Sequence to fold (195 residues):
Amino acid sequence: MKKLVSVVLVCMLLSTMPVFAASTPSDWANSFIATAKNATIISQDYEAEWQTAITREAFCELAYNTMVALGKEPTVPEKSPFTDTENKAIAALNSMEIILGKAEGVFAPADLLTREEAATILWRMSDKLGCAVTNPNITIYSDHSDIATWAQSPVYVVYALGIMQGTDTGFSPKANYTVEQAVTTMVRLYNVTPR
Fold:
């Protein structure tokens, strides 16, 4: 009897556990992901939970790979400027002033990246890569006032360059940036960079 009860309990437990399926990218992201693989921004066997929020560290690794793919490999300093990460991509991008920390010596690599933070990093990358950067005098997003002052110019520059677009509700500056959005914008930056 005890054995039967144990089997029933195990079956009940298994039936309530979530089943995790492999993540597939959104339809609109497929061609960008294929281009990213061909350009070595991501590896051929790169897999991800495509719709999940990207971390600051993972975004920096994509940014570093994009710079390398464009022949602008950043120099990796001997010592990381941050106490909470030894990631060479982060240190290299910091040395180029593409990324900054959240506080003195703190990068917070596991924190999720916001859309306005992503726009700012993409803007700095586009500047280093010699894209035609302007400061467009536009405020097309309905939630413009929600964009941090330090991010407003970057948001509109990357929009003008065709690198980053808004959402259904405006720009959504404080929303998390997803993995597939990050890969897509790296490919757009790759495509608009002069060769």
User: Anything to note?
Assistant: Helices lie at 2-16, 30-38, 56-69, 88-95, 115-128, 149-160, 179-192.
